[in-house]
Write a structure and sequence with these properties.
332 residues; mainly beta; 2,3-Dihydroxybiphenyl 1,2-Dioxygenase, domain 1; Jelly Rolls; 2 domains; six-stranded antiparallel sheet; 45% strand
Length: 332
């Protein structure tokens, strides 16, 4: 079986010549004495031009060539773009954001439910999401990767079985576990418990997700390598050490200091500031008061606060069972 796109073919001879210059080749033409249809193929695309056909002449994107735009004689707009353009980083618009646990949910990729933890997303530079898989079982996912600068996933409730490129067999993430997904690492979500909940923080907020239909996971070997200058991290909570009420998640070393991530237990903090672009604090358990500019807000389980750089704040009156996830990202 083959598939063709059918486009108007007015000025057919000139249109064919234009597409031949772009690397397409003629596959069929009819009738020979006065061509009214022609089929060309190239770059994974097959097109049938029909003289006198109605309809939109369409837009075709060609990647891997010098950026330019032209219009073929039949009216088809041809956009030539770079094969791997750099990630677009929106300008930072940093504001203090406090989001309660009872916010709105919406359905995203692969049937997962999402809750936005940073409204406005710092101008589109960051996204923090509370993600649920309510029913559990196999997840309709596929091997894929993200065009990102930073991405961290923390397992909040339930469990999820995942597999990563160069990281050996599939493994299960349980509450307190964390992974750093470096740029473009291939991975797949396989299955989860009912009621799985994770916290995900990514930069930029709007980023492309690409399927990789060629790579089979799991891979036979474990390789210690970098992806975009970062290393994959799998932090297992049950094996981790606590130091002065802090469980470090190993993100600073893996990102070359770009980001830090840790879980804090019952830690009061006075007049704190950070020098990065954003610090996201998600209450895992218990409650604590967030104080800034003479105002105090009590944060409870699953509440979130996002703090911009150089904004002084205090965490006061923590409950005995407080656990707070804190992720800070520097300039990207």
């Amino acid at each position: 079986m083959t598939a063709e796109i059918v486009l108007p073919g007015n000025d057919l001879h000139a249109t064919i010549a234009c597409f031949e210059e772009l690397g397409f080749r003629v596959e069929a033409i009819s009738p020979a004495d006065d061509p009214a249809t022609a089929v060309v193929s190239g770059h994974g695309l097959r097109i049938r031009f029909v003289r006198g056909a109605s309809g939109d002449p369409g837009v075709i994107r060609l990647t891997g060539v010098a950026a330019a735009t032209l219009v073929a004689p039949n009216g088809t707009r041809i956009e030539r773009v770079a094969a791997d353009p750099p990630i677009a980083m929106p300008a930072l618009d940093a504001q203090l954001k406090i989001v309660r646990a009872d916010g709105d949910w919406h359905v995203g990729r692969a049937g997962m439910r999402y809750r936005d933890l940073v409204p406005g997303r710092y101008g589109g530079r960051y996204i923090a999401s509370h993600i649920q898989i309510p029913d559990g079982g196999p997840v309709p996912d596929y091997v894929h990767f993200h065009k990102i600068r930073f991405q961290l996933i923390y397992c909040y409730r339930g469990w999820v079985r995942v597999v990563y490129e160069d990281a050996g067999p599939p493994f299960v993430m349980e509450p307190g576990d964390c992974v750093l997904q470096p740029p473009e690492i291939r991975h797949r979500v396989l299955e989860s418990s009912p009621g799985l909940e994770v916290v995900e923080i990514s930069c930029p907020a709007s980023h492309d997700t690409f399927a990789d239909h060629e790579l089979a996971l799991p891979m036979p070997d474990i390789r210690d390598r970098t992806y975009g200058g970062q290393r994959f991290v799998r932090h297992v909570a049950r094996n981790a050490m606590w130091t002065d009420g802090v469980r470090d998640l190993g993100i600073a070393a893996a990102t070359g200091g770009l980001a830090t991530a840790r879980v804090i237990r019952r830690a009061a903090r006075r007049d704190a500031v950070h020098a990065g672009e954003i610090a996201v604090m998600f209450v895992l358990a218990g409650d604590v008061s967030f104080a800034h500019a003479g105002e105090t807000v009590r944060l409870a389980r699953a509440d979130t606060v996002a703090v911009p750089a150089s904004l002084p704040y205090s965490l006061v009156d923590p409950s005995d069972d407080l656990e707070l996830l804190e992720v800070a990202v520097g300039k990207v």
